[in-house]
Amino acid sequence: MPKTECNKKKLFIALAGIVLIFVGVQFQWLLSESGSVMQVLSISSSVGLVWTLVLLSIIEYDKSQEIPLQSGMQDNLSNEPKALVSDSICNIEADKYFCKIKDDLGQANKLVGDAVNNLVMNFNYISKLTSSHHSMVLAIEKLAVPADNEPVIQLLKRQMKIAEKIEQELSAAVTSLQFGDLVTQLLSHTAHQIDALNMSLHRIDRQNFHGPDGRSLDEIRQEISSAVVLTKKENKNKPVVQQGMRVGEVDLF
Amino acid sequence: MAKKILAVDDSASIRQMLTFTLKGAGYDVIEAVDGQDALDKANSHKVNLVLTDINMPRMDGLQLLEMLRRLSHYKSVPILMLTTESGDDMKAKGKEAGATGWLVKPFDPKRLLEVIGKVIG
Question: Would you call A243 an interface residue with chain B, using a CB distance cutoff of 8 Å?
Fold first, then answer.
């Protein structure tokens, strides 16, 4: 039976049931004075109840007819849902995989951050020691060191040279210690690229989900390649291009 | 009286290296963690030079540069960009927005001090 016709039938039966209950109640009101109120009420209630039961049976019967129909649809298209299920599993796995990569990047970032913090603390400590050492050498020099005390003068000169050398090394350390910032920016950039690639793969997956029919492996491969190209294009502004810790260029406008 | 430099970078280690270098050379240093923080501090202090990174949260260095150039006091204050970015298009953007110079990280303390000496005398 067509679905619209079935609905009309149900509506008719329901209306008929309501009308019958209404008529019964009217009779109850009209005959209330004749003493047969209970009888009329009983009859009208029974009829209404029967109609309601009939209506419920019809609805249940229709439902039972619809279930096999739905299972039939599933059977006919069994390949498609299977493919979608495997795709969605694939996506969950891909998400987990990308999350794992991002976790690893986060871990690397944390390790680098900790290392930089420790190095900066060491740096500050050494620079303070150097500064006080330098002051001490100057103070000793200022003391009246006899001009003929060549060994002491030579010792002080050597101390001054060592202090200068440490200062040079500290200056070089200032350049080297900037690696933390470069690495952090690169890791952040890579994490963004991973996000962008994951989103592109989701987009391809959605397109395949809503697509009219299955795509060939070559087409999917091509879509993935395009997604990678797009991701590269979107991330072309790589914030760090430095390959080493060589001092950067300076431009005055 | 020591000249005041506003050092803007979201990286704590870079801020520490800048402060070490600049204080060692006799400058007063005010640190800011991003563009917004720098803008707030630039409004409450009169600084002689701004040294700023570009890639920062909340407000990046180029936005900060544009905002500062709108303030009357900062129209002629030198603003140096200290960044990992070295692309010509980015430099052009910086120049157009009113940057005084462009320094690519990692910086060499000696060279940085030379440049600063050149722009603020």
Answer: no
| Nearest residue of A to residue B116, measured between CA atoms | A252
Percent of chain A beyond pLDDT 90?
Answer: 17
The answer to whether the Cβ–Cβ distance between B84 and A251 falls below 8 Å is no
DSSP 3-state of B5: strand
CB A17 within 8 A of CB A52: yes
Residue A111's alpha-carbon distances to A119, A138, A184, A213, in angstroms, are: 12, 40, 10, 48
Identify the CATH number of the domain defined by range B4-120.
Answer: 3.40.50.2300
Phi-psi label, residue A124: left if phi above 0, alpha if psi -120 to 50, beta otherwise = alpha
- Three-class SS of residue B111? helix
Nearest CA in chain A to B114: A250
CB A179, CB A120: distance < 8 Å: no
- The answer to whether B95 faces chain A, any CB pair under 8 Å, is yes
Question: Which residue in the set A179, A248, A251 is minimally distant from B107, CB to CB?
Answer: A248
In the A/B pair of chains, how many CB contacts fall below 8 A?
A: 99
End-to-end Cα separation, chain A, in angstroms: 83
Question: Does B56 score more than 80 pLDDT?
Answer: yes
Bridge partners of residue B51, in order along the sequence: B7, B80
Q: Where are the domains of chain B?
A: 4-120
Place of tokens 């000793």: A140
Chain B residues lying within 8 Å of A177, measured CB to CB: 13, 17
pLDDT tens-place string over residues A101-116: 989 999 999 999 999 9
Burial degree of B56 (CB within 10 A; 0-12, 13-18, 19+):
buried
Chain A contact present for B96, CB below 8 A? no
Q: What residue of A is the nearest CA neighbor of B92?
A: A253
Does the structure show a pLDDT above 80 at B59?
A: yes
Residues shown for chain A: 253
In chain B the beta strands, taken as DSSP E runs, fall at 4-8, 28-32, 49-52, 79-83, 101-104
The SS3 call for residue A213 is coil
